[in-house]
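Example A, followed by Example B.
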Amino acid sequence: MSTRHGDQELAQPNPLRLRVARLVGELLSPPPILVVLALVVAWASSPTPAMAVVWGAIAAAFASVLPYALILRGVRRGQLSDTNISLREQRIRFGVVAITSILVGLAVLAALDAPAEMVALQASIAVGVACGWVVTLWWKISVHAAIAAGAATVLVLVFGPALLVVWPLVQVGDHTPAQVLAGVALGIVVNATVFPLLQ
């Protein structure tokens, strides 16, 4: 009897580990990754730190902050299941909103004559999200993996092979291995194609 009780205790998840895992998952989710990516690419491509802040803030606002704010509002109102938008049907609806926001950001950056790297980054994010949205119409591809792989690819293109060190940040979420691999492939192909073309 005591052995079974002990086994049950061992089987219970550690609350601290769960909290840490959730925190790491949130830090490595698409919104923070896109904010950091926008600021890092802006820093690398802008003539002054002040302009880097301006370009990075514009790109981050439209690619990450605004869509994430809408996600949080949707979760609070019960329109979305969670901040990861785990239900494929909800991802389909929200994808249109995210793509629109990213395209508006792209138009703003282009109109304000932002550095080519910033326009290329926003365009590659837009194409990646649009491709992921199309796949999501039939199948739940891993957006987390696509964004993380795309960000890692852009960092390697901007800073060189030394940035291959960021690849371990590509995380596995609530997806099958096939969905994660498809997301990684999508992130690499889109960003390795679109970013250099417009850079």
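Example B, a separate protein, is given below in the same form.
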Amino acid sequence: MFCQESTDPEYTFLGVGVALMYYGLLRKSNVNKIQIQDMSQDEKGRVKIEFAHSRKRKNPGFSCLIPSLYQKLFLKYESELSTELKSSDT
């Protein structure tokens, strides 16, 4: 909750990383590969991550579902990313 309420974008990123790792993405290297288009929300406000990835074993990837408790954190992260991407385009 601290990361969700913080105004520092670094803590927002940290909170998202911790939530992703806790709810299914246990490897830091996988968290770093997630793109914004891999994230979506369902009708209950839960964040769904669908991640196409293959390693040694040929698998299509995986998905994880983050509870709606973290919806505000993920929306904040998405808006901060969007702002950052827009400013780098100019």
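On Example B: The helical segments are 2-5, 9-22, 28-32, 71-89.
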